[in-house]
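Convert to structure. Protein one:
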Amino acid sequence: SEPPPGPNGTITRMGLVGYVCETALPANRISITACAAVVTAPLAGSPLLYWLFSFVCHQRPERSLWLAGLPLAVCARCSGIYFGALLGLLMIFPSRRNILLFAFALMGLDWLTETAGLRPTWTEWRFASGLLVGMACAPVVREAAREVWQECPSR
């Protein structure tokens, strides 16, 4: 689904803003909150945030990005997924299954070659593969959020 066209068939700025607000705002809030929490954990030295993220990530310091002398609340790959999802939600492009499959295949190749000992851990590559998966998943999440929003009885 794309933003509604304006009177002359082009997408107007207000049409685009309305589209983003209606279809992606709930997902954007969740994504922004998750990204803020990932970065806040080392800045605030928050054991609570590290503990909360421990349920979704192994948090191995050698596989993490660092900020203010501490690792982020999740590993580099998970950080990439969170920040990629945020970028993907903010960008307007349609959901494409082949892009999603390609991103997951790249992440799987990254995991497989590292796990098999064919190469050392490359934190930057882990972040990049997560970023691609997050960006590719975002349109799917946006479309699902739009469908749920349209089915709300209050609308």
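Protein two, convert as well:
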Amino acid sequence: PAGHVTAFEPYERNLTYLNRNIKINHLLNITVVPAAVSDSSGIVRFATSENTFTGRVSDCGDIAVHSVTIDEYVATHQLFPDIMKIDVEGAESAVLHGAANTIRAGHPVLFIAIHTDANRAECQAMLGGVGYDVAALDGLPLAETSEILATPKT
């Protein structure tokens, strides 16, 4: 494959699964970053859960994890993402704020899993403000969707 994937995962248990899958499938075009993504870099609290799918950055988190911003990571590694998939269990707007320069400069296509009404509204406003069209991916009205596609306006 000509493309490259950078995957961010803060939770050690998920990192084990992710790295095992990469190895089993002989994937050479993936970089795994053991960190959460947010609007600031440093150490954040992370709430784990019984399943591995719903962990999230939270002030009430039971473990401490590293956090990075997309802007910082992209600048440091001189990356130019074409596509970004964001599924961060309620921290969608924080991730977008931490990726604002990358989004404005490179206009990547964004796939975002939305977890709260407030985040949906904030993400739509932010993306509309930087020249993106936002559409629902799941067939629901935009005001009710949990999956959005954001594409740069032409």
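The helical segments are 12-24, 70-77, 92-98, 100-106, 117-129. The first strand starts at residue 5 and ends at 8.
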